[in-house]
Design brief:
The protein has 392 residues and is of the alpha/beta class. It is built from eleven helices and 15 strands. It has helices at residues 14-27, 42-47, 75-90, 95-101, 107-122, 135-173, 181-202, 216-231, 252-271, 290-301, 363-366; strands spanning 2-7, 32-36, 56-59, 62-66, 127-131, 206-212, 236-244, 277-281, 316-320, 325-330, 339-344, 347-352, 355-360, 368-376, 379-386. Helix 3 (75-90) crosses helix 7 (181-202) and helix 5 crosses helix 7 (181-202). The chain is globular, with a radius of gyration of 24 Å. The structure holds adenosine-5'-triphosphate and magnesium ion (MG).
Length: 392
Amino acid sequence: MRIILFTGKGGVGKTTAAAGTAVMAARRGERTLVLSTDAAHSLADAFGVPIGSEPTEVETNLFVQQVDAQVRFERSWAEIQGYLLSVLAASGVDPITAEELTVIPGAEEVLALLELRTHALSGDWDVVIVDCAPTAETLRLLALPEALGWYMDRVFPMERRVVKALRPVLARAASVPMPHDSVFDAVERLHRDLEEVHEILTGKDSSVRLVLTPEMVVVAEARRSFTTLSLFGYRVDGVIANRVFPEAGADIWRKQWVAAQADVLGEVEQSFVGLPIWRSSYRPSEPVGVEELSAFAAAAYDDDDPLAVPTGEGPMTIRRTQTGATLRIALPFAVKSDIDLARHGDELVMTVGSYRRLFALPSALAKLTVAGARVEDGALQVRFKPALEETI
Ligand SMILES: Nc1ncnc2c1ncn2[C@@H]1O[C@H](COP(=O)(O)OP(=O)(O)OP(=O)(O)O)[C@@H](O)[C@H]1O
Ligand SMILES: [Mg+2]
């Protein structure tokens, strides 16, 4: 099953590009599902038809789903939220404020991604296209399972045991309710499910497409997303430069725009070396409905295969050398001063800007020591060498 995610700054054309790509896939005979993690019903607007919270067939092989996080408030989350509410109630917070406090920003998108997992396991689809929320939120949420991994593996089981042991005592002494086993179960289940989503999304059949418009601020953000996505192991496989003004027949005003965009597009070429950059022109009207969307995508991809699985070096590779190994992590645009690297036991802690990544070293590398690291050709190269024999 091929999964393609579309992300980018607000309003650049993510939904349009995702929907257009889905139409192309369906018309090639692939059973295609396009779903949105967005609470706004923009897929319905793009297709120009009402869309339900279950996959709705728009034309042969093409299904569209507007995930309704409210309906699908996952059972795990309901359990956890129930507990949080009881704690807040015991602390004297009024019920309405408590409700508000237990709604986690981005939770809807997380739940939409859990829906993706269900679809992946169902085996019903050849292609799943995901129209993601604007850049920052998506990145944060995609990083969630990994960010929690360390806590879930080490601290959580311990806390669970402690709570279990102390519950009878504390229940009497403290006024705050202690979580029950079912709450811990729910947390664990949610974490496991999210981890599975993460695995699916970083797998070889999944990739992310960055949508941008030729404007400096938009491009700057797309570049940051590229680094962050790579850091978390997601494969970016192309850029869609949307709303490019056509040159032909331009008046003075448009000529100026054409020139300004040409400058920015030059920067786009430099920024995303090695990735296809698909250009899509500013159309005379909004591309709405399957025909318009199909024309939009066909013009953008030109002769390229929009479903091609990316090949070559992925975001992270490990190469064995004579004496040790080299770990290569693609980090486009990161410069050495941005990166902080630390080794904690069998883990490598990498910090790029405000993002941190814990990388569990494969056992073959964990036995070695870090001999050095450098940033070269858009990649962080960490060299490992055998640990020195201890001298007595
Ligand atoms: N190349 C284009 N030419 C003309 N109109 C376009 C083009 N691309 C997108 N649009 C229109 O611009 C608007 C925004 O596009 P779209 O909804 O795809 O952006 P988005 O990135 O999904 O936005 P949001 O961040 O709000 O989800 C829509 O009305 C869409 O029809
Ligand atoms: Mg959208």
